[in-house]
Amino acid sequence: MLPKITIKDQPSTNTCRTVDQNSNCLYLRLKIFRLFMPKKWFQNWFNSPYYHILYQQRNDEEAEFFIDNLCAYLKPGANSRLLDIACGRGRHSNYLNKKGYDVTGIDLSFSSIKYAQQFENSKLRFFVHDMRYLFYINYFDFAFNLFTSFGYFETEKDHVNSLKTFRKSLKKDGLLILDYFNREKILKHLTQQETKTIDGIDFYISKNIVNDKIVKSISFEHKNKDYAFKEEVSSFSFADFERMFKKSGFEIVNYFGDYSLQPFDECKSDRLIFICKKADV
Ligand SMILES: C[S@@+](CC[C@H](N)C(=O)[O-])C[C@H]1O[C@@H](n2cnc3c(N)ncnc32)[C@H](O)[C@@H]1O
C-alpha cells in the first residue's frame, strides 16, 4: 500500500517539499525509477541548446507583446501570484516580474531552469518540475501555459491530469491562460519538408500527421556531429479542449486567436488562446 501523500495549502520551495516526510522514501524510489526510464522526446529536445537556436524568433519581444495584451485584459491585482507552467528560459515570467508581479516559473528542462534562475529575485523564482505532478495548492491567482507547452503526452488521461494539477494550483477565483496552436490552420498549411539555416546550422525539418499528432523530425549536423530530434504534439481541436477542460473542472470564459487577442477564426488564426476559470464541481 502506498503511503499517503500530504500536501499543504501553502507553497513549498522545491518539489521535494510538497511531499510529507513519511513518503520521502517512496518519492526517492520513484525518482530513481524515472532516472532509468527511457527519456521522452520532450525531455531531450527542450533541454538541448539547439531548441533555443531553432526557435530563436520566439523571443522576449514576442513574449512582452503578448503579456502586455494579456495584462490589459486580465488586469491582475498588484499582489497577484502568477504561475508560468512550462516557462522554458522564463521570457514570460521575467517580463511579468518586471511589471511587479510575484511570479513562479516551473519547467521540466534542467538547463532552461538553470538559465532562468540567473534572473531570480524576491518575487521571481524558478523550479524544475513536471507539470503532470502536483505543485502548490490554492495558491495562484493566474496560471499561464504559453506557446504550445501542452499536448506532449501519450494519453488524454495524462493531459487531463495535468489540467487538474493546474486547477489545484489556482485559488478559487483563479484563471488559467492556455495558449496553443490553431490546428485547422496548421493542418491546412503544413509544409512537409523544409530547411532552415540559423546560426550557420542547416536544420532539416519534416512534418507528418501520425495518430492525430503533428510529428516534426529535426536533423542537422553541428561540429562534425549528427543530431536528430523529434517533436510530437497532439493536434487538439477546439472540441478536444472543451472536453478536457470539462473533465478537469475548468470552464472556458473567453478565447482568442492571436497574441494581440483578436477573436479566434478557425481558418485564419495562428493561435488558440483560452481563458478558463475553475468550474463549480
Ligand atoms: C515550446 S516550449 C515553451 C517554453 C516557454 N513557455 C516559452 O514560451 O518560451 C515548451 C516547454 O515545455 C516544457 N515541458 C515539456 N514537458 C513538460 C512537463 N512535463 N512539465 C513541465 N514542463 C514541460 C519544455 O521543457 C519547454 O521548456
Structure overview:
The structure is a single chain. With 281 residues, the chain is of the alpha/beta class. It has two domains: 189 residues, 3-Layer(aba) Sandwich (Rossmann fold); 49 residues, N-terminal domain of TfIIb (Single Sheet). Helix content is 30%, strand content 30%. The chain contains nine helices and eleven strands. The strands form two sheets. It has a seven-stranded mixed beta sheet with strand order 3-2-1-4-5-11-10, sandwiched between helices. Strands 6-7-8-9 form a four-stranded antiparallel beta sheet. Strand 2, helix 6 and strand 3 form a beta-alpha-beta unit. Helix 7 packs across helix 9. It is globular and about 50 Å long. The N terminus is likely disordered. The site of S-adenosylmethionine (SAM) has 19 residues, from loops. S-adenosylmethionine binds next to loops.
